[in-house]
Amino acid sequence: GQEVPHLHFHIFGGEKVGKMVS
């Protein structure tokens, strides 16, 4: 599911967290 983590990405900073998790 990308919808749940996507919300957290926006809270932390989006692209920054997205790259680390992805």
From TrEMBL:
Any GO MF annotation of the entry: catalytic activity
Cross-referenced InterPro entries: HIT-like (IPR011146), HIT-like_sf (IPR036265)
Pfam families reported for this sequence: HIT
Occurrences of domain HIT (ranges): 1-16
SUPFAM superfamilies xref list: HIT-like
Protein name (record): HIT domain-containing protein
